[in-house]
Hints:
The chain is 82% helix and 0% strand. It is mainly α. The longest helix has 32 residues, at 15-46.
Amino acid sequence: MSDHCCPADGVNLSDEKNNKLKRMFWIVLVLNAAMFFVEFFYGLIAGSNALLADSLDMLGDAFVYGISLLVVTRSIQAKANASLIKGIVTLLLGLFVVGQSVYKIFVPSIPQGETITFIGILALVVNLGCFWLLTKYKNGDLNVQSAWICSRNDVLGNAGVIIAGVLVVYFGSMWPDIIIGLGISMVVLSSAIGIIKESVSQRRI
């Protein structure tokens, strides 16, 4: 399996399984959309680049799951097209995060480490729930497998946010937040490249 949020070969699904997939995608979509607002709001309040970066990842995932709802019953070609859109959105979000990180370097301020840690833990719990839901359906479907890998990356990103919060509190420095924010952006950009490459490959089949 690829290390990115990338598609893999899929198969046609029964109507019953399609309905279950739709319910599952609705659940993870709502959870990610809600956490986007929570992380973005508290990222602004806490002055945290890591939280803002992770919130944009949540927003991208909500968009991903929305697209997935539209293509559950579609062909592999349609799913590849949807994954290509995911890749473009993810790439743009990653570039935005890099820009935010550079801005923080030139406009320094120490973020609220306690807030970063608490919201990071909340986001981790939500993403672990999404990861568990997606795991039950990830084998044999292009779009679900792509979403599952994204969710796995999100769990790693949440862990990074928590570490950033703890280090900010311990050292009283902005640098852990900036470094983790850049790290998340690198994961986002790497995922975007993987999605785009494999989606283009799938569209040629």
